[in-house]
C-alpha cells in the first residue's frame, strides 16, 4: 500500500496525516508536541517562534506515523503542506534563519500597514492588493528593515512558514501565488508581484522567492532532508497552502458561491468568488485561493474572522457547574428560540476586525435574576455565536458573495444542532458537515497535481461526510431573535 503525507503547521502544534493514495482514506493523524508549542513575546503584542522547532516536531511526527503504522519511507509517495498564514521567516545565503519567525498573531507592524494604506491610497490597495497591507507579511518585513537593519542586510530570501518547511525537506527555495497574496505581495490587477508596495517599503525585490504552482512538483526531498525527516530522497512535494485556504480545500470548496466555515476557538467564514471587486477591504481579507491561476479566471478566497466564537462557549464550560459541551447543549435545548429575551454578545476575545476593530467585550443583556438560569445562558451563548456568524455572512454578501452551500468541519460548534440550525435557517442555506482536518486535506491535495477536482470531491464525500443541516421552514422566530440580538449589538457599537 502507498500513502501520501499531509502536514499542518500550526502555532500550537504540528499535525501529520497519512492517507491512502488510491482511496484517500485517512490511516492516521498524530500531533507533536503533545503539549502546545510556546511563543516568544519580548514585548506586548509580539509573537515569535523558532522555525527549526517546527521542523523538529515534523520529523518526530513522521517518525511516529511510520512506526505506528509499520510503514517504510518508500511507501510515502508525496507530501502536502498546510501552514499558519502571514508568518515571516528570514534566511541567509547558507539557508539559516536570521531570527525567529514573526508569526500571524504578532501585531508589531499594524501602524506600518495602516500608514501604507493611507499613503498608497485605499482605492489602489483595494483594487490591486484586494486588502490593506495591514499587519501582513510585507509589513512585518518592512518592520525588520526599519528596526533590525543588520539582520535585513543579511537576508537572502524571505519565506512563509510552509515555504521554510518545504526548503528543509528539499534545499529548494520557492513559494506560490496564493502564499504571496496572503503576505500582500501580489498585484491582482497586473497578475504579478506587487512592485509598487515593495518599492514603497524600500524592500529589495530579489528577496522574493521563485514562484511555483500550488499543485504540481514544487521540489523533492534531498539527501539531507531524507536523513532528518525519514522520508525517501526524491519524494515530491506536490502542494502547499496557508491554513485557511487549505481548510477550504479540505472541505471541497473551490468554486464561486461555495463557503467553508470553521467554528473553533475563533470562527472563520471563507468564501470563494471570481470577482476582484472589493468593498470591505477593512473587514474582509482577500487572497488567491488554491486554484487561482495566473492569467486564468480569478478564484479569490474572501476570509472573515470571528474572534469571539468557541472561546465564549469554552469560558462558560469552565465557569458554569457543567461537565461537558454535550451537557451544555442539552441544557440549551430546554430553552426556546430567542433564549426568553436573554442576549449574549460574544466578542470577548479582543478587537473584532468585522466590527471595524472595536473591542466591545462579552455582554449579557436582558437577564432577569428571578427567571433566568444557566440553561438560558447556554442557549444565549450558542445563539449569540451563531448570530455573529450570520452577521459576518451579511458582510460577505454585501461584498459580493452569493453563497450556494456552506461546508463545515465537525468541530465543537457545528456539532450543536442549535448552532447549525440557527445559522442554516437565517442564511437560508444548507450546511454540510464533514469529519476532516487540515492535515488530511493537505495529504489528499497531493493528488490534485492531476487537476481532477471531481475525483477529489468524491473522496471527501465518500470518506468524510457526516450530515446536512437544512434551513427550517419556519424562519420567523429565528429572525426575531436575530433582530433583537443585532439591535443590542448596534446599541453597543454606537456607544463605543
Keywords, separated by commas or semicolons:
18 helices; 38% helix; Nucleotidyltransferase, domain 5; alpha+beta; 496 residues; 22% strand; 2 domains
Strand fraction: 15-25%
Question: Tally the helices: what do you get?
Answer: 18
- Poorly predicted sequence stretches spanning 5 or more consecutive residues: none
CATH architecture of the largest domain: 2-Layer Sandwich
CATH class of the largest domain: Alpha Beta
CATH superfamily of the largest domain: ATPase, nucleotide binding domain
Question: What is the CA-atom radius of gyration, in angstroms?
Answer: 22 Å
Structural domains: how many: 2
Structural class: alpha+beta
Integer average pLDDT: 96
- Number-wise, the strands total 23
CATH topology of the largest domain, by name, is Nucleotidyltransferase, domain 5
Placed side by side, the strands forming the largest sheet appear as 17-18-16-15-21-22-23
Distance between the termini: 60 Å
The proportion of residues forming helix, as a percent range, comes to 25-40%
Shape descriptor reads globular
Amino acid at each position: 500500500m502507498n500513502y501520501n503525507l499531509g502536514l499542518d503547521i500550526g502555532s500550537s502544534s504540528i499535525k501529520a496525516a497519512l492517507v491512502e493514495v488510491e482511496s484517500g482514506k485517512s490511516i492516521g493523524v498524530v500531533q507533536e508536541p503533545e503539549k502546545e508549542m510556546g511563543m516568544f513575546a519580548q514585548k506586548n503584542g509580539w509573537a515569535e517562534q523558532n522555525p527549526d522547532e517546527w521542523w523538529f516536531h515534523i520529523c518526530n511526527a513522521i517518525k511516529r506515523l511510520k512506526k505506528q503504522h509499520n510503514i517504510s519511507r518508500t511507501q510515502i509517495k508525496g507530501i502536502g503542506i498546510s501552514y499558519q498564514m502571514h508568518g515571516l521567516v528570514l534566511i541567509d545565503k547558507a539557508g539559516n534563519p536570521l531570527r525567529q519567525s514573526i508569526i500571524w498573531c504578532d501585531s508589531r507592524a499594524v501602524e506600518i500597514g495602516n500608514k501604507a494604506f493611507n499613503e498608497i491610497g485605499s482605492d489602489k490597495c483595494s483594487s490591486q492588493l484586494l486588502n490593506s497591507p495591514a499587519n501582513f507579511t510585507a509589513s512585518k518585513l518592512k518592520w525588520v528593515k526599519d528596526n533590525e537593519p543588520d539582520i535585513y542586510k543579511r537576508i537572502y530570501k524571505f519565506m512563509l512558514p510552509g515555504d521554510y518547511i518545504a526548503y528543509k525537506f528539499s534545499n529548494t527555495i520557492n513559494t506560490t501565488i496564493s502564499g504571496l497574496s496572503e503576505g500582500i505581495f501580489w498585484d491582482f490587477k497586473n497578475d504579478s508581484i506587487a512592485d509598487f508596495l515593495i518599492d514603497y517599503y524600500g524592500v529589495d525585490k530579489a528577496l522574493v522567492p521563485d514562484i511555483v504552482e500550488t499543485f504540481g512538483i514544487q521540489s523533492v526531498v534531498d539527501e539531507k532532508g531524507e536523513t532528518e525527516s525519514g522520508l525517501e530522497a526524491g519524494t515530491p512535494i506536490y502542494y502547499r497552502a496557508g491554513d485557511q485556504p487549505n481548510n477550504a480545500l479540505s472541505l471541497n470548496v473551490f468554486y464561486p458561491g461555495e463557503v467553508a466555515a470553521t467554528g473553533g476557538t475563533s470562527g472563520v467564514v471563507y468564501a470563494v468568488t471570481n470577482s476582484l471587486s472589493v468593498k470591505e477591504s477593512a473587514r474582509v481579507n482577500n487572497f488567491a485561493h488554491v486554484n487561482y491561476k495566473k492569467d486564468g479566471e480569478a478564484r479569490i478566497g474572501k476570509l472573515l474572522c470571528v474572534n469571539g466564537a468557541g472561546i465564549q462557549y469554552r469560558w462558560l464550560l469552565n465557569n458554569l457547574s457543567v461537565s461537558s459541551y454535550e451537557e451544555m447543549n442539552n441544557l440549551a435545548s430546554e430553552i426556546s428560540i430567542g433564549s426568553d429575551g436573554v442576549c449574549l454578545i460574544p466578542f470577548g476575545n479582543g478587537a473584532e476586525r468585522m466590527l471595524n476593530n472595536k473591542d466591545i467585550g462579552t455582554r449579557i443583556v436582558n437577564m432577569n435574576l428571578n427567571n433566568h438560569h444557566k440553561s438560558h445562558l447556554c442557549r444565549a451563548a450558542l445563539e449569540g455565536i451563531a448570530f455573529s456568524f450570520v452577521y459576518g455572512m451579511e458582510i460577505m454578501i454585501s461584498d459580493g458573495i452569493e453563497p450556494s452551500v456552506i461546508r463545515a468541519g465537525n468541530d465543537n460548534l457545528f456539532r450543536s444542532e442549535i448552532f447549525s440550525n440557527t445559522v442554516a435557517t437565517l442564511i437560508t442555506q444548507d450546511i454540510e458537515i464533514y469529519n476532516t482536518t487540515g492535515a488530511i486535506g493537505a495529504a489528499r491535495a497531493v493528488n490534485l497535481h492531476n487537476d481532477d477536482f471531481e475525483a477529489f470531491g468524491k473522496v471527501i464525500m465518500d470518506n468524510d461526510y457526516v450530515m446536512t443541516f437544512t434551513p427550517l421552514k419556519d424562519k420567523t422566530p429565528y429572525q426575531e431573535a436575530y433582530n433583537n440580538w443585532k439591535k443590542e449589538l448596534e446599541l453597543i457599537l454606537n456607544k463605543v
